[in-house]
Amino acid sequence: MVLQAIKYSRGQLEILDQLKLPHAEEYDHLYSSTDAWHAIKEMRTRGAPAIAIVAALALAVELTNMKLPSVAEEVKVFIIEKLDYLVTSRPTAVNLADAARKLRKTTGEAAEKAGATGDAVREAYVAAAEQMLIDDVSDNENIGRHGADWLVKNTPAAKQGQISMLTHCNTGSLATAGYGTALGVIRSLHAQGNLKHAFCSETRPYNQGSRLTAFELVHDKIPATLVTDSMAAALLRQKGQSENIAGIVVGADRVAANGDTANKIGTYSLAILAKHHGVKFLVAAPRTTIDLDTQSGADIVIEERPGKEVLLVKGPRHDGINLDLAVVETVSVAAHGIGVWNPAFDVTPAELIDGIVTEVGVVEKDSDGVFHLEKVF
Ligand code: MRU
């Protein structure tokens, strides 16, 4: 069975509630842009590409099921207001802003056509939102293939045989419309018979690596081991040779024009480790994550999340032997009264990145160490 974070048919949208995974697989219906805003903010749906698609489709559902004004301009204004609102849900990932920009354009063009009606504007919007869902899956499959081929061609480890990879963050089917970005590279390596082992890190917030990435690896029967984020250096030192670790592959929430990459908190430290240990560090992301209007990582707004996400852990009751899935408990894991700083992302400087894997190929730096990301558009 294929993991599906987003279930859509015209007029109907459901998301897999990612706060309940891996212990319960429950879908929530989203009926409107307001429902989507809350689902994104609360991280019931998450991952840069998935956020963009859920937002776009929730508005499509709202438009499909509502009684629309017949005047095209009024429908356009309604859609644009809702898109502006959706973009305020989370700031760091650019995919949502990019999707909103494209959908505003489509809507505007439809409204300007001679004889345009409210229905025609709605139809143009809905068709464009639905296309985003379709495109994301095929883009991810291409990212996976390009990344896997690049690793096989460019890493000394691959000359020894099957390679192992460490991944961080949540980048699989749950974070996208399907297949995944960085996890897509691992899926492709596995499908090609080139993967020895995948290591995934625990990753905050909400331990998305152990709850979501690990869930996907187990689901797909990919040989995999979970480590905490603080074990990565020891992993590379102690198991780098025996496991034939070729590198680290991560996703991205926003890649600036110079290649600086905002991704899940902890990514930056992994890039430093990769450099120190002489293994490759790859960022895997669709072109919708590349933001040529942002010059460098210094211009990226990093979301700070509530401290309670660090102070508290939620899960089913466990008596030391058995899990009771029917009872979900929240426990405190920190000293009462301690302050918390909880940035959800960090920025990895381009100099630490060996390649940016997109659906149209892997971008490497030129001989002066500069990425030319404009080439992929
Ligand atoms: O904060 P999240 O859970 O929405 O972020 C998910 C990630 O792990 C990201 O770093 C990212 O979107 C990777 S690309 C699929």
UniProtKB/TrEMBL annotation:
Q: What is its EC number?
A: 5.3.1.23
Q: Which UniProt keywords apply?
A: Amino-acid biosynthesis, Cytoplasm, Isomerase, Methionine biosynthesis, Nucleus
Part of which pathway?
A: Amino-acid biosynthesis; L-methionine biosynthesis via salvage pathway; L-methionine from S-methyl-5-thio-alpha-D-ribose 1-phosphate: step 1/6
**Which GO BP terms sit in this record?**
L-methionine salvage from methylthioadenosine
Q: Which GO terms describe its cellular component?
A: cytoplasm; nucleus
A Pfam family this protein belongs to? IF-2B
Report the active site residues: D253
Annotated compartments: Cytoplasm; Nucleus
Transition state stabilizer (site feature) positions:
C169
The molecular function terms of the Gene Ontology recorded here are:
S-methyl-5-thioribose-1-phosphate isomerase activity
Q: Major place of localization?
A: cytoplasm
Q: Which reaction does it catalyse?
A: 5-(methylsulfanyl)-alpha-D-ribose 1-phosphate = 5-(methylsulfanyl)-D-ribulose 1-phosphate
Which family, according to the similarity comment?
A: Belongs to the eIF-2B alpha/beta/delta subunits family. MtnA subfamily.
Question: Which NCBIfam families does the annotation name?
Answer: eIF-2B_rel, PRK05720.1, salvage_mtnA
Question: What role is this protein assigned?
Answer: Catalyzes the interconversion of methylthioribose-1-phosphate (MTR-1-P) into methylthioribulose-1-phosphate (MTRu-1-P).
Protein name in the entry: Methylthioribose-1-phosphate isomerase
The species this protein belongs to is: Didymosphaeria variabile
